[in-house]
Amino acid sequence: MEIANLLPEHWNDVKKIYEEGIATGKATFEINAPDWDSWNQTHLPQGRFVCIKNDEILGWTALTAVSGRCVYAGVAEVSIYISEKVRGEGFGKLLLNHLITESEKHEIWTLQAGIFAENTASIRLHETCGFRTIGYREKIGKLNNEWKDVFLLERRSKIAGTK
Q1: Most CB atoms within 10 A, among 3, 44, 58, 93?
Q2: Is position 45 within any domain?
Q3: How many domains does the chain have?
Q4: Helix axes 120-128, 91-105, angle to 10 degrees
Q5: What is the pTM of this model?
Q6: Using an 8 Å Cβ cutoff, are 110 and 154 in contact?
Q7: Structural domain includes residue 51
């Protein structure tokens, strides 16, 4: 197993895993995966990784800026998606821990995640990797005409942004 930078040539596999997450109804408010250009424009260049085993992409992660204001330059939102074939096998933990380490090298001092309340596996994964729940947004939006509650989690680096 290796973790590599997410490159444009990985997009078809990354998109497939994203669509698997969308299909669960527990991962995102998105109902369709975007094309590469749209996705590429909305995600930071750092923090894009894929998990590969036997030449197969099994998961991916990426960061999105939370604000264009300079005071939030070190704050990013995490996206992490794992292939349905290997969910629960530890690939998410390896990938998220790698993202944390790499984000700190780029002076990202706070990582945050918004996770649907029913996505308990993702909440546990983030907590295992040092995130803490900081809030709960009740019925913040609808997906397929159903209100969704979202937990807000964050992880504050002990390395980046300490000076």
Answers
A1: 58
A2: yes
A3: 1
A4: 50
A5: 0.92
A6: yes
A7: yes
Structure tokens that stand for 45 in this block: 């260049």
Chain centroid, CA 47 distance in Å:
10
Cα 26 to Cα 118: distance, rounded to the nearest angstrom: 7
Each residue's pLDDT tens digit, 100-124: 999 999 999 999 999 999 999 999 9
CA distance 82 to 51: 9
Q: How far is CA 135 from CA 6, 101, 152, 153, in A?
A: 31, 24, 5, 7
State how far the Cα of 71 lies from the Cα of 91, in Å rounded to an integer. 33
Cα dihedral 36, 144, 26, 21, rounded to 10, equals -30
In a domain, 40, yes or no: yes
Range of the domain at 19: 2-156
CATH at 46: 3.40.630.30
Is 163 inside any structural domain? no
